[in-house]
Specification:
The protein is an alpha+beta fold and 303 residues long. Among the domains are: 47 residues; 56 residues, no CATH class. The strands form 2 sheets. It has a 4-stranded antiparallel sheet. A two-stranded parallel ribbon has the order 1-2. Helix 7 packs across helix 10. InterPro entries: Crypto/Photolyase_FAD-like_sf (IPR036134), Crypto/Photolyase_N_sf (IPR036155), DNA_photolyase_2_CS (IPR032673), DNA_photolyase_N (IPR006050), NA-bd_OB-fold (IPR012340), Photolyase_Class-2 (IPR052219), Rossmann-like_a/b/a_fold (IPR014729). Keywords: Lyase. GO terms for molecular function: deoxyribodipyrimidine photo-lyase activity.
């Protein structure tokens, strides 16, 4: 059902005093959390936890990172002026010359664009500064003091026929071939990370630094499905990878850059860009370029 209806009902019927929800910078999740919080009983506390980043998004920064101002220069170079509130590594107003960025010269003075090499640079020191506080070993999971008490008048959890649900899902999706290369589950996620043939095995980790952009090499981590569906935490993957830094420094640091910094950067963009899923959030020079080439002949038309 609609979580804005079902969650407040569940909280009220079970007389729960605490509701914990995961953070997401996307619009639908934010709307759900706002609407649920407004409909909770007055004595219920709602806590939001950023469980899919290592450092909570709101701790890393309170503004969109990586926004710079671009001025026209010459045909082969762009003069980039870092906007106010830049990172400690880039002083506001300092000039940087980026060779070969011809496309940036389409920008008008004062336009704001997110330049990839600069965007990560502004958020990276903020993430690394917070890692000692947040990238720490997981505490042991405590045992629940008691089972859910069957109190008369309160909502009781109904038993779930998981096997029946799986049969129903398989029947409905019978025409779709089953994925065979990726085995789901927490145990499979750990095996994919640090099992005998996992990403952190010497044979694969040794290839990562030099071959991760080669689609023909078995060098990628292949951890994305497990991270996406919450079957392993990025903090867990980061902690295990860090154990191999002494021997595979370049590979581990490259993996942590993508696992931690780039994930934080993506969430930061969505958190502080209301129109993140609309072309209007692109830089003016990018939109202008698309318009200029709208009628270009193309061998294929995609729908």
């Amino acid at each position: 059902g609609d979580p804005t209806d079902t969650l407040p009902q569940l909280v009220e019927q079970s007389q729960a005093g605490l509701l914990v929800t995961d953070f997401s910078p996307l619009r639908v999740g934010r709307q759900w959390r706002t609407q649920v919080s407004e409909r909770l009983p007055g004595n219920t506390v709602m806590v939001e936890v950023d469980a899919h980043n290592v450092v909570p998004c709101w701790v890393v920064s309170n503004k969109r990172e990586g926004v710079v101002h671009v001025s026209k220069h010459n045909p082969r170079e762009a003069l980039v002026v870092v906007g106010p509130g830049g990172s400690s590594s880039l002083t506001a107003g300092r000039m940087l010359r980026l060779s070969g960025r011809t496309a940036l010269n389409r920008a008008m003075h004062g336009d704001t664009v997110a330049v990839k090499v600069t965007a990560a640079r502004t958020i990276r020191p903020k993430v690394h500064k917070a890692l000692p506080e947040f990238l720490v070993p997981f505490p042991a999971t405590p045992t629940a003091p008691a089972a859910w008490a069957r109190t008369p008048g309160l909502l009781q959890p109904e038993p779930v026929d998981w096997e029946g649900l799986l049969r129903e899902v398989l029947a409905r999706g019978a025409e779709v071939p089953e994925v065979v290369w990726c085995v789901p589950g927490e145990a499979a996620a750990r095996a994919a990370l640090d099992g005998p043939a996992g990403f952190l095995s010497p044979a694969r980790l040794a290839l990562y630094a030099a071959k991760r952009n080669d689609p023909n090499a078995q060098a990628l981590s292949n951890m994305s499905p497990y991270l996406h569906y919450g079957q392993i935490a990025p903090a867990r993957a980061a902690l295990e990878a860090a154990k191999h830094r002494a021997r595979y420094k370049e590979a581990v640091e490259g993996f942590l850059e993508e696992l931690v910094v780039r994930r934080e950067l993506a969430d930061n963009f969505c958190q502080f860009t209301p129109d993140y899923d609309n072309i209007s959030c692109a830089a003016a020079w990018a939109r202008e370029s698309l318009d200029l080439h709208r009628s270009d002949p193309r061998p294929y038309s995609y729908t």
